[in-house]
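User: Predict structure, ligand S-adenosylmethionine.
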Amino acid sequence: MHGAHWYHGRIYRRYIDPRLDRTRQLIAEMVQPDSCVLEVGSGTGALAMQLASRCRSVVGLDASAKMIRVAERARRGHPHGGRVQFLHADAARMDRMVRGHFDFAVASLFLHTLDEARRRSVLRQMQSLADRLILADVDAAAQTGTERLARGAVELAAGLQHFRHWALFLRQGGLRALVEHAHLDVERTELDERFGTLVMRTRPSRSKEKGSPS
Ligand SMILES: C[S@@+](CC[C@H](N)C(=O)[O-])C[C@H]1O[C@@H](n2cnc3c(N)ncnc32)[C@H](O)[C@@H]1O
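Assistant: Predicted complex:
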């Protein structure tokens, strides 16, 4: 399974989580109340716990034991923790690990961490497990040259392989290109300008549903 990084767990909760408030708020606003939600790459569980107050159930899945430990601690101390379950699992195998069908599958700042083949496979599995997807990730278009350099330095600090995945994700057009390639219809798009995150709510393409050629 893809292992833990040095910044996972408490470091992520302390230094990254607070900067993602707006991104998470935008995601939460796209989730209909009383939904069943699957969150892939759920990290410290901050979004899952935020969603727990207004959703029927939330399943968070993450490959990092450190992240799962921090998320479990948050879940146990939360008044709606009973609605949340965290799974320590590789998203590449989630169609075999996760039971049931969901209203929404969410991936927040997760897809850019994967290599291309895994990214496409994970997206396909998310599509098979949920009616709608909410995808939030670094916006390929919004960053100027200097911003991208600064962001690149941060991504490099996360490791060379992580940096390569991030750079390729942006070169290939980021979230918008991924969504288009997967034939998803975009229902809503928002931008967290502070963190540079694009948030898109999608559903399977209507033309695809009707079986027209793509
Ligand atoms: C950049 S963090 C994002 C965490 C959280 N979604 C957020 O918005 O803050 C990426 C997360 O994806 C998880 N991850 C990476 N590869 C994974 C995989 N193959 N399966 C499941 N989780 C994975 C990492 O452990 C990490 O928690």
